[in-house]
Amino acid sequence: MNAIAGIPYEIGMTVILFVCVVYTLFGGLYAVIGTDYIQSLIILFGIVVVGVAVLTQIDFGIIHTDILRQRPMLMNALMPAAIMAIFNNLLFGLGEVFHSNVWWSRAYAMRKKVGQKAYILAGFFWLPVPIAAGFIALTSGSLGINVTSPDMVGPLVSASVLGKAGAAIVFAVFFCSLASSIDSLLAATSDLIAEDIYKKMINPRAGEKLMRRISSGIIIGLGVFAWAFCMPRIGTLATVLFFAGPMVGSTIWPIVTGLFWKKANAKGALLGMLFGSITGLIAYFELGWYTASLIGAAVSMITVITFSISFPSDFEWNNLNEKQTNSN
């Protein structure tokens, strides 16, 4: 946003966060899902417009030739680092769905027989986005654009191809992508803390009005914490995501085995997340970002399966039946 409109990082970050906190605070999950729907349409439209504009400016053959000349290793699909990066990103994405309360809260909020259809359609609609974004990034060399940071590829290419109109489109796309993530995390995290920690562990008799006040306070507190944490720039969006990768990837096996394996061990699940996160972070710094999620998920898998086989549990789904538990 600084590259497109000259808005200082601190001001842009503060404004976006404030807007997201306000409409999440007053509208709740309903407002978050509604705005996410509109924001997703804007993102899809913006990516398509920029991609089509790039195609009208430059030929596929030229792009291919320039990549072969300037960055030939990008054309090697069997490059070990590339293969590891693919699986690393896949595990990161899968772990993001499993561990994040954003997805679970939406699933619980849906009517019966809606969830599966909604997630399948959303997946197919979103499929072109990473492909188009990757294609746009590969054209930067052919367009003669000097990219100084990975975060700058989209804005610089769009501004070069579409001028001020491109800058406006990318500005809207980036704002929507940031806002859709922030509001979803605010709503989901506040719901998790309020329902599973405050009401279940601290005050089980809390009424609806009190829970509303507690949730509002948590949303504001999360917003203030995020603002203070992000005020000093700690890296690009990519570095932050890949740093979180092993912590995300290490949740896959604990949750999968907990859902589908009756003998899954709870301590093994906890230790799997802990050991997977630690070893993944070590790999992030010692080996490279493209190994972090991969190693974290692998260590987590070995830990969870070993504990479940060595110390099998006997899980009963009825233990999670809140109506039965409350009546007893």
| Dominant shape | globular
Mean pLDDT: 82
Question: What's the order of the H and E elements?
Answer: HHHHHHHHHHHHHH
Helix count equals 14
Q: Whole-number radius of gyration?
A: 22 Å
What is the tally of beta strands?
Answer: 0
Q: Sheet bearing the most strands, described? A: none
Proportion in β-strands: under 5%
Q: What is the end-to-end distance?
A: 55 Å
Structural class: mainly alpha
Helix content: over 70%
Low-confidence runs of at least 5 consecutive residues: none
Describe this structure in words.
This protein is mainly α. The protein has a domain at 2-58 and 100-234. Helices cover 79% and strands 0% of the residues. The protein has 14 helices and no strands. It is globular.
List keywords for this structure.
328 residues, mainly alpha, globular
Give a concise summary.
This protein has about 325 residues and is mainly alpha-helical.
